[in-house]
C-alpha cells in the first residue's frame, strides 16, 4: 500500500475509529491512545499490506481488536473503573429526583447482591453494551460461560425485583 493509499484508507477513517474505540473503552484518553497506537502499527506495516476492499470495515475491525487487546492487558483497571462508576446514589436525594432514581437504585442494589463474577459480566453487557465475545475476551471466560452467567444473573435480578414488589 502506498502512502496515498494509506491516507485514503486509514487516516480518512480516524473519526470512525475513535468512535468505535470510545464505545468499547468508555474513556476519551484511552480511545485516543488506542487509535494512535493502531494507526502507528498500521503505518509500520503499510508497505507490506494490500489496500483492503472495504476500508471502513478494515479500520473498525482493526481498532476493535486493538481495544479488546487493551482490555485484556488492563482488565483489572477497567473492572475497577466499572465498580467505582456504578455506585448507589446518596441518601440525600430530593423528592422530585427520588422517583427518577428509584428504579436505577433498585437495579444497582440488585447488582450489589450478585457475586463479583456475575456483576462484572452483567455490567459489561448492560452498561458497556459489549457482545458475549468481547466480554469473554475481557474476562477470560469462554463465550458459552458468559452466556450462562448472563442468563443466571438476569434470572437472579428478576427474582430479586419480584420479591421487592
Briefly characterize the structure.
The chain is mainly alpha-helical and 165 residues long. It has helices spanning 3-9, 14-25, 28-45, 55-73, 75-85, 95-113, 116-126, 132-139, 143-164.
Q: What does this entry look like structurally?
A:
The protein contains nine helices and no strands. With 165 residues, the chain is mainly α. Helix 3 crosses helix 4, helix 4 runs parallel beside helix 8 and helix 6 crosses helix 9. The radius of gyration is 20 Å and the shape is elongated. About 7% of the residues have low confidence.
Write the layout of secondary structure elements.
Layout: H1 3-9, H2 14-25, H3 28-45, H4 55-73, H5 75-85, H6 95-113, H7 116-126, H8 132-139, H9 143-164
Helix pairs in contact: 2-3, 2-4, 3-4, 4-5, 4-8, 6-9, 7-9, 8-9
